[in-house]
Fold each of these.
Amino acid sequence: MTRKTDTQITWKTFSEGLWANNPVFVMLLGMCPTLAVTNSAINALAMGLATTFVLLASGLLVSLLARYIPKQVRIATYIVIIATFVTMIDYIIQAISLDLYNALGAFIQLIVVNCIILGRAEAYASKHRPAKAVLNALGMGAGFTLALLCLGLVREILGSGSVFGVDLFGPAFQPWVIMTLPPGGFLVLGAWLLLFDWFRLRRQQKETVTGGQSDVA
Amino acid sequence: MSKPTIELRATPHIHAPHDVVKIMRNVVFASLPMAAWSIWSYGLSALLLMLAVVASCLLTERLFNRHNNTLGDWSTSITGILLFLTLPPGFPAWMGMLAGFIAIGMGKVMFGGLGMNVFNPALIGRAFVQAAFPVAITTWIPAFFEGRFTRLIPSTLTPPFTIPPETAAWSQQVAVDAFTGATPLAVQKFDHVAAPALHLLTGTTAGSLGEGSALIILACGLYLALRRILDWRIPLAVMAGTWPSAELFHWIDPGVYPDGLFMLLSGGLMPGAWFMATDMVGSPVTPRGVVIYGLLIGIVTVVIRLFGGLTEGVMYAILLGNAATPPDR
C-alpha cells in the first residue's frame, strides 16, 4: 500500500461527501437502503446515522491497519471490520428502540454490503492517514444522512402527512399511498436527481457564459 | 404550413397520406363520442373532470415545452381525454389533475416528448393514481343517476389534498332502479354473477367513464381502423388473446370463471384494446410483433382479472406489453 504524501486537511476533505461526491445524489451508491427505508423521516435518519457510525469506525480502523493488511485479502479484511461495527450498531439500535429496529428490519445488517462503506475503505481510508480518513468518513456519512432525509421527508409528508411522526395537516389529508410503497422511493429519488442535475446544468451554463471574465478576475 | 412547389431532396418521394397532426386530430374526434357518452351517463361531474384533466395535461406540456409550441399537434389533448376515460366517474378533480401532470410529465416529457414515450402516457397517469389513491380510484357511481345534469357527485369537487367524502350512501339515494355502483367485474369476481352482454354493450353498468358502452367504443375503434390510423391487428390480437384463455377457464369451472364474451365486453378491455394498446409509439411495428404484443396483453389481462387481487388488469397488461416492445425504431 502506497500512502499519499499529502497530509493536509482541508475543508474539501470533509465537504466532498456533502456535495461534490455525495454518495447518493452524485455517486449513486447504497441505493438499496436509500430506496428501502426512506418511507419515513425517522427511518431515514436512523439509517443515515447508523451508516455514518459504521463509516466512521471502519474508516478509522482500516486507515490504522492498512499497512498490516496483505493486499490479497484486503477486501475480506475490510468486510470483517465493517461487519464488526454493523453488529455493534445492530445491538445498539435494538437497545434504543425496538420499534425502530423492527421498522428498519434486515437493512441494518445489510449495511455490511453497502457499497459506500467498502468503497470508502478501499478508495480513501486505506490510502490516507486516520485523521483524514475519519473526517472524510464523517462528510460522507453526513452527505448520506442528508440525502436519506431528503427522500424520507418528502415521502413521509406526501405519504403520511406527517414529519417525524408529527401530524401536519390533520385528519382531512389524503395520503398518497404510493409514496410509502417502493415505487415512491424510485419516484422521489428520480425527482431529487432531476433537481440536482438541473441546478448543476444551470451552474455550468452560467460558468461557460461568464467563463472568460472569471478567469481574468 | 405551405408546401414548396418543387421538392428537392433524396428519395423516396412518396408522400405518406397521414401526418402526426392529422392522426392525432382523428383520434381526438374518435374519442369524443366516448367522452360524450360518459357525460350523458354521469352528467356534470364527468364534464368537469374531463375539463380538469385535459387542462392539466395541456398546462403540463406547456410548462415543460416553453420554447416550442407542442400543443398544436393534439397529442396532449388525446392523452388527456384518454386518461379521463379511464377514471371513475366520481374521481376528485384534483386527483385527476395530478394524474394529468404525471401522465404528461412522467409518461411523455421525461422520455423526450411525443414519439419517444415507452409507455402509454395516459396509463402512466392512471397507474400513478391507482397506486396513490387506491380507495378513490375504486369508488364507483351508478350510471344515469338522478339529477346528473343539475348536481355534482359529492366527491368531484373535493378540496385539493383532502380525502374525498364517502359516496356510497349518496349513490344509493340517487340511483335509478336496478343500477348499482358495483362494476360487472367486481360482481363477477366476488359473487360469481356475470352481467348480461346486452347491458355491457349498451353501457348501463357501472365502471370507469370510458367503459360504458362497448358498442360505441367498437364503432369509434372501427372508424380509426378504417381510416388506417390504428393497426387493426392490435385490437384483434388482444381479443384473440382474451377470448380463448377466458373460455378455457370457463370450461374448467363455469361456476367461478366467466365466459369469453363477458371478458371481452366488460371493464376496460374494449377501450384498452382499441385506444390504449394501439398507441403508435408503444406498440410494435412488425406484423408478427403486433400479434405477439396483442396476445400477451389479452392473456395477461385474463390472468390478472381471474387470479389477481384487483378486479381489472387491462391497464397493467398494456403497460407490460409496452415494456416488452423494443423501443429502438
Amino acid sequence: MSEVVMKFENLTKKYGNFTAVNEINLEVRRGEIIGLVGPNGAGKTTTIKMMAKILRPNSGRILIRTNHSELEDLQKVSSTITQIGFLIDIPSFYNMTAYQLLRYFANLQNYPKDQIDERINELITLFKLTEWKHEKVKTFSKGMVQKLGMIQAIIHDPEIVILDEPQTGLDPLARVEIRRYIRKLQSQGKTIFIASHMLYEISEVCDKIALINYGSIIGFDTVENLALVLKTSEINCVLLNPLNPSELETLLNRLSEKLNSYLDQNLDPLISKIPIKYYPEQQGLKIFYDGRNESKGEILKILIKDFESDFTVISFTQPKTSQLERVYAEMVKENNSNNGDV
Amino acid sequence: MEKRTYSLTAIKPVLYTVVFELKKQKKKFYFFLAITILIGFLLGYILQLIPSSLLADTQTEFFNTGLQFISFITLFAACLFFSGIICSEFNKKTGAIVFPKINKYKLIVGKYLGNLILVMAIITVYYFLLGILGFYYYAGPISPKLFYSYGIALLYVIALSSFVTFFSSFMRSVNITIISTLIILLMGFSIVDQIVVLIFAGDFEPLYSLSYLGSLITGILNTPFPDPRYVEFTFGGEGGGFGPGGHFTFGQWITPSIGMGITLLVVNIVVFFILAAFLFKRRQL
C-alpha cells in the first residue's frame, strides 16, 4: 500500500455558529484519485480552501508529506507548497494574456526557467487554447477560463493536484479530455483530489469517493464498497433478443423466485418497486441485488444456466454512476434524517 | 516528492510579482503619464502666451506654482493604483488562484513595489518637465531645492500609497476604497486641520495629517524656510471680534519642519504598510 501523502485530522471550520466542515478525518495515499462528493454547501470548497491555506481551520489539522520525510502540519509549513496544484471554485484571473499569467504562475512555483515556455506550449496545445495564448482572459469563454484554471493548477507539474469542480462550464468533448488527462496524471504517479457534485464525472475517474454532507464525511471508500455497506447495488444485463411481452410477467416472476436470496430486500420504492425490471427499448434487465460480490457471480450463473432457453445475456455490467447516485442518495438521506431534516 | 519550494526569505517571487504588476498596470500608467505630460506642456505653452511680467520672478517661485498640481496628480495616482491592491484579490476572487502560489507577505510587497515604481515614475516625469521648463524660462541652472522637493514628493507618494493600501486591506470593493480615500485625502484631513487650528490656534501642529505633511513639497522651496511656520491673517475692521466693524483672524500652519516632516512621512509609510500587510495576512477569502 502506498504512503499517505495527505491526512485530515478532525478538521473543522466554522463561520459564526454555522459549521461548514465538521471534524473531517481522511487519508489520501500517493497515486490515488479521491473524489469528494456532496450537495451544494456541503463543505467541499471550504475543505479545499483549507488545503490551499486560504482558510484557517478552527480546529483539527491537515498533514502533508512535502518530501519523503514525515507528515507535517500544513499550517506550520512556512512557505507555500509548490508540490500541490490547485483549481479552486470557478477560476478568476487578472486580465492578462494566458501566456503572461501562466509564465508568472510557473515562475512563482519555481518551475525550471528554461522549461517554462515548453511547458506552457505543451499544456496550451493539450487543452486546445493555442490560438488564445496571447489573448487577454476577458475575451475567453467560461469553458476556456476553466481550461486555463486547469492548466494553472498543473503548470508546475505538482505531485498532488486538487481540483474543485473541474468540469464546470466545459463541453462534453472537453470533459472527456479532462477525464483522460486526469487518468494520465494518475499513471504518472500523481495524487488527485477532486471535489464535485457531478457524480458521473467522479465515478468515471475516482478510485475512492468521500461523501460529504453538512460538513461531515458520511462515507469514504470505493464505489463498490460503499454500495456494499448499504447492501444494495444494481446490475444491467443486455439480452441478445427482446423478450416476448406475453411471457414477460411469468418470466419476471420466475426470475424473482430463482434470484430471491440475492436480491435487495430493502429496496427503496422511490428507486424501484420491484427488484427486477425489463426495459424493452434497451432490451435489458435491471436487477437490484444485495451488493455482495458473491451474489453477482451467482446471479450471472443462474441467468446463464437456468434461463438458457428464455434469453441470452450478452452484457452483464454494474453501472458505476447510477450505483453512486443511489449510494449518495441513501447516505445523504440517512444523514439528513440524523440532522433533523424532513 | 521533490521539494522545489522557495524558502521564506527568497525574494524571487517578489521580483516576479513586481514585473507582473508593472505589466498589469501598463494601461493605467500610460494614462497618467499622458495626463502628466499634457499638464507639463500646457504649463509651458500657456506661460509662453502670458506676458513675461506675469511669469514668476524667480525659478523657485515658478516651481512653487508648478508643484501645486503635483499634490493632485500624486493623490489621484496613489488612489487609483493602490485602491485595488488588496481588496480586488478578495472581491474578484483572484486570490483563490494566486494565494496558494505565493506567501501573502511576498505578494503584497511585490504588488506594492510594482505600483510604487509606476507612481514614482509619473512624479519623476512631472519634475523632469518642470525642471526643463524652469531651465528654459529662467535660463539658469536648476535650483537644488527642486531636488529636495522631489525627494519629499517621493516620500509623500509612498506615504499616500501605504495609506491607500491600508484602506484596501479591509475594504470590500475597489470603488469604495477609491472614493473613501479620495474624500479623506482631499477633504477629510483639510477639514480636521481647520477645526484643529480654530480650536488650538498655534498650540497644536496637525502632524497627524498627510495633507499637511505634503505641504513640505512646496514649503521646502521657500527661501528662507518659513519661520515661524504658523501664521495668522487678520481680515476686517479695527474693532475686536466678529460682526460689523470687527475683524476675523485666520490661522494657518504653512509647513512642518523638514526633520519632523520627513520623520513622520517615514512613520506613515512604515506603520500603514505593516498594518495593511498584517490585515491582508489575516483576511480570509
